[in-house]
Amino acid sequence: MNPFHTPVLLTQSVDGLNIRPGGTYVDATYGGGGHSREILRRMEGGVLVAFDQDEAAMANLSGDPRLLFVRQNFRYLKHFLRYHGLDQADGILADLGVSSHDFDEAGRGFSFRFDAPLDMRMNRRQTLTAAELLNSAGEEELLSLFREYGEISQAGRVVSAIVHARNREPIHSTGQLLKAIEKVVPRAIEKKFLAQVFQALRMKVNDETGALAEFLEASLDVLKPGGRIAVITYHSLEDRMVKLFFRSGNLQGREEKDFYGHLLTPFRLVNRKVIIPGEEEIRDNPRSRSAKLRIAEKNRE
Questions:
Q1: Beta bridge partners of residue 267, listed in sequence order
Q2: CA proximity to 182, closest of 158, 206, 166
Q3: CATH number for the domain formed by residue range(s) 124-205
């Protein structure tokens, strides 16, 4: 196995699963396989089901007979576990970060560091690309995605620049996009701003929040009583979704209480305070800077 992704919060996340001998575990975002390797190292027998929609992840598969790889989005967690005769799991881990390999591979269009086709599809079998989105979306849709997914306060200026540019000629490459918005990029925070623009497009193209919502709901059905789920997020919107779901058992954060006013929830929070990387990890792996880890345990019936 040739890893291309430095696993973030590796020890903390795998510790959080409380690995049981002979158990069934899920790595919902296989990537370079770093988290999977550590889970397998701690397992005795059992099975680890690894999901990843990106065909590039297959290059990192090991020959471990306990590893079952599913080349699908983790939103289909419940369906594919049942397909393989595994109705329930003892633990589920998801690292929502994009693989370092995807950022570093110029042709994928994930990074503003390279002039490349505006693709950004994690699953190349899907049809929608970032270029198609940029050239076909209405102004209100673009405004919404840059505000929600990019958390860009000056989203209106970005959208105006993009619309003005695409009216002259379609935007097909990262270079064209950078040229289109160059006059509205704040120089003091240029790299951060561009990262937010590209993040917003990537999240929309891959329906990342929609997939996360389906995954979280499926995890509640899939986890055994006493089973644990650990999720690493990198975006405030995703972290809020996970926080609300772990607290209430639903994506709306709707709280139900018993007769005595006690919160009725299917989960017990393993870490009430969010876990973040330490200074040493951030220094060694700068892309871990915005990572947040939350862990919950399904209540025993």
A1: 298
A2: 158
A3: 1.10.150.170
